[in-house]
Amino acid sequence: MKRRTSLYALLATVCFLLTGCLGAPRTETIILNDAVQQPSGEEASPFTVQTIYSVLDGQGEGIYPIGWIDANALLAFTPEYPSRSRLDRVNEPYTARQKLSEVGVFTYPQNSLVLSPDRRNVAYISVSGSVLQLNLHSLGDSGNTLIETTKNKQLLNARMSWSSNGRLLCYTIDNEVEKAIQISVYDTIEGKSRRYTLPLAQQNELVSSVYVSDSGEAAVIVKRLGQDSVLELGELRGNEFISQYRHPISNEDWVEWIHQDQIAFVGADGILYAYDQRNDVLSVLLNDIGQFRLSRSDRKFIVYTKDGDAVYAASIYGNNVLNMKQIYKGIVPYQMVWSPDNGKLLLIGSKLKEQSKSKLYTELKYQGLVIEFK
């Protein structure tokens, strides 16, 4: 009898719980520790290094790999002063060049030549006396389009950049009459530029970088005042840039559009942030890093540096960074580029050598590497 009474009590409890389940719906949030999702073992990592290639080793100095033409070939630039310089294709194993075309002479190859993310065009600055010319060079038909002609000091204020889809080229022009800088956005499909005025708050304030969204309706401006840098995210409306968000940024000045409404950047505190302008939310992705680059095709992978010369690769899922793995140590990169299929990584930088007595680091010569993953 006692056992039967206990059974009735158990059934009553079950019925009560079921009745509660049929009531108003509830939302539960379950937080999983990211560490549980980390793969264990060498074979589980998507960033296990298979091969490391030395790019154009022994080919001489002054040759600059600038990006990927396809998953197995690089695009390189070779200055040939005072004649026209050349663009080359460098196939795997990245030891020899194949000439593609000739282009005008550049001022500074690292800053005055940028390959579009879709790998169709190269924008470059050529020099003729005291005049600078901004050109668009098509890799498909080797045709050349003159975009802008201006004085020397007017065009080299900020780093040129492309929108993530490769359609829009962004650069700046000094407006000496209005004492302001104009952001120029060149549309490769329409074949024309739109300009937006960017008044400077202080006289010694400089614009170092500009990044335009895929739609061309928003941009990120990086300004420098002395040793400090700050980014401003805003709209390109009418003929003006309307600032809507500000944040201190590291002196590398690098910003990536994750998607149309979200950007990633390293703050002055060394933290990698993601800012979403739809809800004004600032998220922390990584701590204590130097540089970073996202994969161009899908924004699902990231490469970043720690402690100067340690290079890591990782996956991005939402605002979580997973599968972190050190893939190289011993080079301080100034350029990191994912291949179109995300299976390789181009690193360009300088080696560091520790001096035994002073424990100071001195930079050695430039080095280019391709890291291939399994």
How would you characterize this protein structure?
This protein has 374 residues and is mostly beta strands. The chain has 4 helices and 28 strands. It has helices spanning 2-21, 34-37, 109-112, 152-155; strands spanning 49-54, 64-70, 73-78, 85-91, 98-103, 113-115, 121-128, 131-138, 144-151, 161-162, 168-175, 180-187, 192-198, 206-212, 218-225, 228-237, 240-249, 255-259, 262-266, 272-276, 281-286, 292-294, 301-306, 310-317, 320-329, 331-338, 344-354, 361-373. The strands form 7 sheets. The protein has a 4-stranded antiparallel sheet, with no helix packed on it. The longest helix has 20 residues, at 2-21. The N and C termini lie far apart (68 Å).
What layout of secondary structure does this protein have?
Elements: H1 2-21, H2 34-37, E1 49-54, E2 64-70, E3 73-78, E4 85-91, E5 98-103, H3 109-112, E6 113-115, E7 121-128, E8 131-138, E9 144-151, H4 152-155, E10 161-162, E11 168-175, E12 180-187, E13 192-198, E14 206-212, E15 218-225, E16 228-237, E17 240-249, E18 255-259, E19 262-266, E20 272-276, E21 281-286, E22 292-294, E23 301-306, E24 310-317, E25 320-329, E26 331-338, E27 344-354, E28 361-373
Antiparallel strand pairs: 1-28, 2-3, 3-4, 4-5, 6-7, 7-8, 8-9, 10-11, 11-12, 12-13, 14-15, 15-16, 16-17, 18-19, 19-20, 20-21, 22-23, 23-24, 24-25, 26-27, 27-28
